[in-house]
Amino acid sequence: VYGVYADNLWVIAGLESPSGNIRKLDRYDRNLGNLIETKFLQWRPTYFGMVTGERLLVGGNTSQKGQLYYTEEDNLNQVIDSINIGKLLLGVVSDSGRTWVWMEDRVSTFDDSYRVGAPSIPGEYSALGWDPRRQQLWLGKDDAIEVFRADGTLLQTITGFSGTVTAIDFHYNK
User: Fold this and answer.
1) Tell me: the pLDDT tens digits for 115-141?
2) Of 49, 36, 47, which Cα lies nearest the Cα of 10?
3) pLDDT tens, 11-42?
4) From CA 9, how far away is CA 30, in angstroms rounded?
5) Which side of the chain, N or C, has fewer Cβ within a 10 Å radius?
């Protein structure tokens, strides 16, 4: 399993066969516990994000470049748009209609027509996280986290870590 997306009803998993020849998306009904549908791909489906409503973004890589695939959550075979990133994709974060795509040399946001739009933040990062409550993008790197506003302007740099930041997540108390 390369990646998993889960909501209240569905679990969508990005899989690859042991031989490496078959890459696919499997969709499971959490209530019934059975496989509903399979979508075959030419690349490894690894990254998932809910864009708006029932619209799902799936990202992954071939051996040389990243791919983005927009689909409907209840019909994985319906291709809304497919985009070749042209460089390796490292992660995707989506929330409330905003989609951040993490590539080798930058983090960019996508516009409503699913094309790279402003802002684009250059740099080599080791992790990303989106804080939906504050509408902030957090980017990890060696010994620091840089926090950006939704418009791409740097808000603050958090230092004092001893090592590379490899994961960022948010948990809120009630």
Assistant:
1) 666 788 999 999 999 898 898 999 998
2) 36
3) 888 888 888 788 888 889 888 888 877 888 88
4) 5
5) C
Count other C-beta atoms under 10 Å from residue 75's C-beta.
13
What's the CA gap between 14 and 28, in Å, rounded?
Answer: 12
Task: Order across the sheet with 34-41: list the strands.
Answer: 3-6, 10-16, 23-29, 34-41
Please tell me the pTM assigned to this model: 0.78
H/E stretch holding 10 reads strand 10-16
Q: Is a pLDDT exceeding 60 seen at residue 174?
A: no
Which token pair is 70? 């927009």
Nearest to 129 by CA among 171, 89, 162: 171
Omega of the bond prior to 119 within 30 degrees of 0, cis? yes
Q: 101: burial class by Cβ within 10 Å (0-12, 13-18, 19+)?
A: buried
CA dihedral over 132, 134, 136, 140, signed as positive or negative: negative
Give Cβ neighbours of residue 53 (< 8 Å, ≥ 6 apart). none
How far, rounded to the nearest angstrom, does the alpha carbon of residue 85 sit from its chain's CA centroid?
13
CB 94 within 8 A of CB 49: yes
